[in-house]
Description:
A: 145 residues; alpha+beta; Thiol Ester Dehydrase, Chain A; 5-stranded antiparallel sheet; 17% helix; 40% strand; B: 138 residues; 4-stranded antiparallel sheet; 29% strand
Amino acid sequence: xxxxxxxxxxxxxNQDFDEKTFEIPADKTIEYARLCGETxxxxxxxxxxxxxxxxxxxxxxxxxxxxxxxxxxxxxxMDAGKxxxxxxxxxxxxxxxxxxxxxxxxSKTGRSGRMxxxxxxxxxxxxxxxxxxxxxxxxxxxxxx
Amino acid sequence: xxxxxxxxxxxxxxxxxxIPDTSLAIASQFAKLVGWGGPRFTDHEGARKxxxxxxxxxxxxxxxxxxxxxHHWAPDAEIxxxxxxxxxxxxxxxxxxxxxxxxxxxxxxxxxxxxxTVANExxxxxxxxxxxxxxxxx
Lengths: 145, 138
């Protein structure tokens, strides 16, 4: 592993650097589901007994900052992907809390040079402290050669 | 026919092809809903001025299409995890096709893994990903 990547991992991984609360409005989760093409009533009908936000709704929630303060700028950042893990349904009409940390930092070297990837993870909890879901944002920074 | 239980899933089977609505109207409504109302998602000409080939479908909307496809195949499926890679822009108003294939079936815990791809009319992969899905044991 490159020395600067190892140092960044030591300094930044697995330390919460942001906390934010999010209201989950039912009309917004229903519209989100509709635009995605969902047809299941549990995502579209607020009267359904198992009414819930669509699983990837949390991917649309952003913390106050994507990377920790003083994180090295390896290059221009671009959105390289999203991941979601679901443990319990996110219920519309509730307020949830998201805590963000850097989950991974790694590099790949190709023909155009080195690319550094940073994975920010937001862990979402309900008011009772139950861990509902994780949302990962993968940013790729291409270094200038 | 919709899948109801894990016993109905066959390793290697293709999910029914899903044609998402990648119109500019949908992309634009979605971008505004999540607070990303910039021209790159709402206006072809504005996106071109930013150096893009046209307005894009937001990446997380593509992820939403993939999950909707799984729910069309198996309405009671619970998404346990989905990871998506945004390989290239999905341009709004261009036709795209989503395909999926079952790459693992665990009849004991009811979980399946599905590889998913969003491709344009040239057959170029724009987004790909993997989902882990929980199905009823039956």
